[in-house]
Automatic annotation (TrEMBL):
Entry protein name: Manganese/iron superoxide dismutase C-terminal domain-containing protein
Domain annotation Manganese/iron superoxide dismutase C-terminal: ranges: 135-189, 287-332
Compositionally biased spans, kind Polar residues: 229-245
Gene3D superfamilies: Iron/manganese superoxide dismutase, C-terminal domain
GO cellular component: cytoplasm
Biological source species: Macrolepiota fuliginosa MF-IS2
Length: 347
């Protein structure tokens, strides 16, 4: 560890007894250092076969490394005292701060990922008993069944051959789908008014701040206004504003397999269903909400499954274990929080 890293570490140790957040002194005044949030479960016990104790330790070391490097990047700036989410907002689109942005965005994603997990149950194979009847009804309408959702989500992750994240998302109307982002792309700071209330984000942005971040839009939304673009280091998607065209109108990073009107999906990511398909979409899909909100995610990084003992080609088996530790009760709460926030906004 370099001298700066040692100074930061020693400083955080010195103040830990008197403050919940480490601070350092500089000519800019007293600043809060970013630090890893405590997990909602004992780290030393691991997360079953998905992240055994040593593998979970690697994930935490990765998180610590991201935050340590972020702290080095923001020393002496206003971002040293901002939340991680606010730092991502502040640095988005600033080419000269891309390294700090990447560290902050990855740390935010990884924290969200870990906070949506819980140790496996001794009595059941999953935590799906935490899903409410209303939410399970939505999943069945949109995806057919929990098993089909799991299959589509895992297929999206298996279809990624570069580092990134796969997300299960909802829009404000309650429609759900699957989205992939690449590299340090994130979906976690799209709507500060909602994320301020998100039960699974431990480091929320300042809702009073302003940002030029463009929300990620569903492929079912209207064309963006002139002069706007979805291109952003937050999304990992291109700046092409053209509406979806052709017989495969869904962008391969978004899947909303509404059984009432299935269209052909991207080859190699989600297999085409058997039997006849309909090319036209229902009015429900056409009027789906524009902003997408994350419910849970999984990292597509080799160190995750390799550290869990699955080897370099063990991603598929590792993903099967993900469903044994996903905290569906938290996901359910987040889903209805989205709907409630949207209702409040309309009123």
């Amino acid at each position: 560890m370099n001298q700066l890293g040692l100074r930061l570490t020693s400083a955080s140790v010195r103040v830990s007894a008197s403050s919940s957040a480490p601070r350092f002194k500089s000519r800019w005044g007293t600043r809060r250092l970013h630090q890893r949030q405590s997990l909602p479960y004992p780290a030393e016990e691991g997360l079953g076969k998905f992240l055994p104790p040593d593998a979970l330790k690697v994930q935490l070391e990765y998180q610590d490394g991201l935050l340590e490097r972020l702290n080095e990047q923001v020393v002496g700036t206003g971002d040293a005292s901002s939340s991680i989410a606010q730092t991502v907002i502040n640095l988005s689109g600033k080419r000269d701060r891309i390294l700090a942005f990447n560290y902050a965005s990855l740390a935010l994603n990884n924290s969200f990922f870990l906070n949506n997990l819980k140790p496996p149950s001794n009595n059941t194979q999953t935590h799906e008993d935490g899903i409410s009847s209303d939410f399970i009804s939505n999943i069945r309408t949109s995806h057919g069944s929990i098993q089909q959702l799991r299959s589509a989500f895992s297929a999206a992750a298996l279809g990624m051959f570069i580092n990134g994240w796969v997300w299960f998302v909802s829009d404000q109307a309650g429609n759900t789908g699957i989205v992939s982002t690449y590299g340090a792309g994130t979906l976690l700071i799209r709507s500060r008014s909602y994320m301020q209330k998100h039960p699974n984000i431990l480091d929320s942005p300042d809702p009073s701040s302003r940002s030029e971040v463009t929300p990620l839009r569903s492929p079912f939304a209207q064309n963006p206004p002139p002069g706007t673009s979805p291109a952003s280091p937050l999304s990992g998607i291109s700046g092409n504003n053209s509406p979806p065209t052709g017989v495969n109108p869904l962008h391969p990073r978004f899947f909303h397999d509404d059984l009432s009107s299935i269209t052909t999906t991207a080859a190699g990511i989600h297999s085409t269903p058997s039997g006849p398909t309909r090319r036209s979409r229902t009015s429900t899909m056409l009027h789906a909400g524009e902003i997408l909100y994350p419910l849970f995610c999984v990292p597509v990084y080799e160190h995750a499954w390799m550290s869990a003992g699955y080897g370099i080609w063990g991603k598929e088996q590792w993903l099967k274990e993900f469903w044994s530790v996903l905290d569906w009760q938290k996901v359910d709460a987040a889903y209805f929080n989205i709907l409630e926030a949207a209702k409040e906004k309309r009123n």
